[in-house]
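Hi V.,

You were right to ask for the full record rather than a summary. Here it is.
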Amino acid sequence: MGKRTPLYDSHLRLGAKVIDFHGWEMPVQYAGIVKEHHAVRTHAGVFDVSHMGEIEISGPDARAFVQYVVTNDVNRLGDQDAMYTLMTDDRGGIVDDLLVYQLAPELYWLVVNASNIAADLAWVQSHAEGFQVTIRDLSDETALLAVQGPAAAEMVEQLTNRSLQDVRPFSFVRGHIDGEGAILSRTGYTGEDGFEIYLPSASAAKVFDRLIALGAEPCGLGARDTLRLEARLPLYGNDLRRDVTPLEAGLGMFVKLDKGDFVGRAALAAQKESGVPRKLVGLESVGRGIARTGYPVFRGDQQVGEVTSGTMSPTLQKPIALALVDSDCASIGETLEVEIRGKRHPMTVVKTPFYKRNLVKRGVNH
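Predicted structure:
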C-alpha cells in the first residue's frame, strides 16, 4: 500500500481512478481528464497536492543558507513573497525544482516535489554545516490544495476572512479557513490564475468538499499534466533530472550567477560560458501521432534527442511535446521527426509556452 494524503477517502467517494504516483496513491482522474482540463481553463478546478513536501528552514542564518542551496536570488524576497527556483549539484544537475516562501526574515519554507521529499531533506541537511539553522520536515502535518482557473480567486475568497484581489502573483497572505490558520499563495502549475491553500491535514477534507460545493471541478494528476505541459511548466523526473542543467532546460532566468556562491554555481557558470550542448524545446505535430516520454527524436538519420513530455493538447487540439535535443536542432521552425511505435512522425520546433491565457482569450492561438 502506498502513502495516502488526508483526502484519500474523499477521492474514493468521488469515484476517482487512483494510481501509484511515486509511492503515493493519487487520483489520476475523476470525470475525465479532458473535462477536468477544460474546467480549469474556463472556470475552476481543485487539485489535491498534499503529497508535495514542505521543509522549514529557521534560525539566524536561514536566509544565507537558503541562498546557498538554491539558484535564484533569495535576497529579492520580502516577507510574504514566494519564488520559483532550483537546487543543483556540484555538476549543475537539477536536484529538484521548488518554491521558496519567506514567512519571516529568519523563517523559510521550501516546497518540494513529492518524489523528492526524503532526498531533498537529506540534501539540505548535508549542506547545513557552518550555518545556524534548524531544518524540519512539515510535510506530514501540512495539506495542500490548489484551486486553479479564472474563478479561483473569487471561490477561495468565499472560504476565508481575507480579500485576495490584491495578492500579487508569487506572494501569499495568512488567513483563516474554518477557524484554522492557512497560507494562501498565488502561484500555480496550470497556466491559469489560482491559489494554493496550505492548511493543517485534519482540515483538508472539509475545505476540499466546500470548494467542490462552490463549483470547483475535482481534478486529478492527468489534467494537471496536460495543463502544465500546455503552459510549458516542467515536470521533475521528465523534463528536469540530475543529468540536465537549468540552462539546458531553458530556466536560466532562475539562475542568478551574480548573487554570490551557491551549490553548482561554478559548473553552471562554465556551461554558460561554453554554451549549452542541449536545449529543451517545444514540438507541435500536424498529424495525430502523440509523442510520449522517452521517444527518440531524429534529424535525418541521426538521433538528436528524446521526448521528455508529450500529450494531445485539449486546448489546442493537436499533439504537443517537450524534447531535449542537440542545440543545433533547436531553432524555431526546425522540422524534426519523432519515432512513434516504429514510424517517424514530423514535428516542428515551436515557440513556447504552447498556451498563454491572455493570448488565447484574445483568439491569437486559434
